[in-house]
Specification:
Blueprint lengths: L16 E6 L5 H5 L5 E5 L10 E4 L3 H11 L6 E5 L1 H14 L8 H22 L3 E14 L5 E7 L3 H10 L2 E15 L5 E14 L9 E2 L6 E3 L3 H8 L2
Parallel strand pairs: 1-5, 1-7, 2-3, 2-4, 4-5
Antiparallel strand pairs: 5-6, 7-8, 7-9, 8-10
């Protein structure tokens, strides 16, 4: 039998790898708690006011073990809360091991160990579970091939880890409050823009010069984070 004879046609159904990042208090953990039968792998204390199942993790090795156990558990959704605090746990482990981090070796090792966690999450995906990774945001300089630079919001991770997570994820959502600029008349007939918000929390799936986002599926560019239909869309149901 030739290799091409094994070709298949049509869409393939698979559980999804979802990353949600945004500012503090924007509701990332809240929307993650709405996914079916979820467990939070809590590397930080951000779910105290949320009715959810959680396991508090104080080391990188405990996080890896918890993710490994999740693959054979009854939970349908595995939530890492959060990726940037897990990276801090890796850094803590390197210090405790007296790992030599000079000449970029630290960044390479952090990326490698973060990749181990994603490998565990891949096992969860193969077991039919959804994986949701929560991350905080930061503003970094972006640059195009022409040398133009601008500010862009990205997940708050080291460069290597951020690139790995963005590539691994099927869906990367930037969560923010819906805002707009209102124009008013200022002094001497000058117009001025005033930033304001509707207060609605939204999830953005299309990348924009001001923030990173992506999706491998057909999703609305903007989704209401408080709408239960959004969870259905993200799950592909």
């Amino acid at each position: 039998m030739s290799v091409l004879e094994r070709a298949t046609t049509g869409k393939q159904t698979r559980s999804r790898k979802i990353t949600i990042y945004g500012g503090q208090g924007d509701g990332k953990s809240t929307i993650a708690s709405k996914f079916p039968n979820s467990i939070f792998l809590a590397t930080e204390d951000g779910t105290a006011n949320i009715d959810c199942t959680r396991v508090s993790l104080e080391s990188a090795i405990d996080t890896l073990q918890a993710a490994n156990e999740c693959a054979t558990s009854d939970f349908q959704t595995i939530v890492l809360d959060s990726a940037d605090w897990f990276e801090k746990l890796i850094e803590q482990a390197l210090r405790e091991e007296n790992f030599k981090t000079d000449y970029g070796k630290g960044a390479i090792e952090i990326d490698r160990r973060f990749g181990k966690l994603l490998d565990q999450f891949d096992a969860c995906i193969e077991a039919g579970k959804t994986v949701v990774i929560i991350c905080h945001q930061e503003i970094r300089k972006a640059e195009d091939v022409a040398g133009n630079t601008w500010d862009q919001i990205k997940p708050k991770l080291s460069k290597r880890v951020c690139e790995r997570l963005l590539e691994w994820s099927d869906i990367v959502l930037h969560m923010k409050r819906e805002d707009f600029i209102r124009t008013e008349e200022g002094e001497f007939g000058r117009k001025k823009g005033i930033a304001t918000t509707t207060g609605r929390r939204i999830l953005c799936s299309d990348s924009h010069p001001s923030f990173i986002a992506k999706t491998r599926y057909e999703l609305p560019a903007i989704m209401d984070a408080s709408d239960n239909e959004t969870i259905t869309l993200l799950l592909g149901e």
